Amino acid sequence: MRGYVLHGRGDASFGEIQVPPLGPYDALVRTTAVATCTTDVHMINAAPYPNAIGKPLGHEGVGVVEKVGDLVRDFTPGDRVILSAGGADWRIPQAQRGEAKYYPNNMPYFSEDPLQGGVFAEYVRALDADMSMAPIPDGVSDEQALMVPDMVATAFTGVERMQIEFGDIVAVLGVGPVGLMGVAGAALKGASRIIVIGSRPKTLDLARRYGATDVIDYKQGPVVDQVLALTGGVPVDSVLVASGGSASDQFTAAFRIVKPGGHIANVSLYYEDTVTLPMDALSYGGIEKFFTGVFVQTGREFYTRLLRLIEQNRLDPTGLITHRFDGWDELPEALDLMRSRNPDVIKPIVTV
Ligand SMILES: [Zn+2]
């Protein structure tokens, strides 16, 4: 079968690869749509995980079940499913205390199994299908479902860490696709005022559609001053960090605008070696402010709840999709868009 394989740093291309073998708990899924992600671009540029080399890239995909292993209970060929973006191992004891995702050795990028690859391939093996995949309801389109495994799931995991209560004032730093879903999630959680910090007009407009009450252009002045000017100097209850740029700058801004006792959830991946935080932003170490580095929640139960929000018209993530491609041959173009820094690109998808 065909797959878009990472060969090494700066080197990825289509190649012929082996259809993965099927274990008793696994499903073989024929990919029908994939999305490209800034993480894919980083994977190609830096090849940070040795176990990912030689395998197909990609972690945002939906498909149709082709075959199932003998011990799969709840899926049959023909089912439309979400493929997992992460690799929680649901059969380790730690899973029983909700910690499955902290041991992600099933993740294609980390797995030592050379045949456990990403979703940029004609077929994907879903390990432990009953636990890792989610059936897509009839009322949910492939495009909607495709935004779930990373964009919605990452943002909503972060939003859960913000501990939002009704009427809270929250800030979302960065309005890429995950930040935008963070806005939608904060609105669903009952935030009253959602202050969004970005600069691209297209994404700031979309942020308003997803529930932002105030938008700030960080190019118009220091973020902290702009946020506090909006709130009359009152710090916000919680912050979602979903921005690019420098981790030190973003975390400093977050700590400066969040209240004592407030929560900061970071959903961005930064690749700096060190972070510098001014001590006054941490109140010289003497005031409680909570910071969580967020790793996406995966699994059938979580995906099913997110899909239910879409099915019941509480959420439509397709506003993120700015570019649509048709066929595997156009995948490199969809990846180029993620590299382009074109301000109109939010999320490209490829239907195959
Ligand atoms: Zn992604």
From TrEMBL:
Q: Which Pfam families is this protein grouped with?
A: ADH_N (PF08240), ADH_zinc_N (PF00107)
**Enoyl reductase (ER) domain segment(s):** 8-346
Zinc listed as a keyword? yes
Which cofactors does this gene product need?
Answer: Zn(2+)
Q: Name one GO molecular function term.
A: oxidoreductase activity
**Metal-binding among the record's keywords?**
yes
Keywords per UniProt: Metal-binding, Oxidoreductase, Zinc
Q: Which domain of life is it from?
A: Bacteria
- What family is it from? Belongs to the zinc-containing alcohol dehydrogenase family.
> What name has this protein been given in UniProt?
Enoyl reductase (ER) domain-containing protein
Where does this protein come from, organism-wise? Modestobacter caceresii
Q: Lineage of the native species?
A: Bacteria, Bacillati, Actinomycetota, Actinomycetes, Geodermatophilales
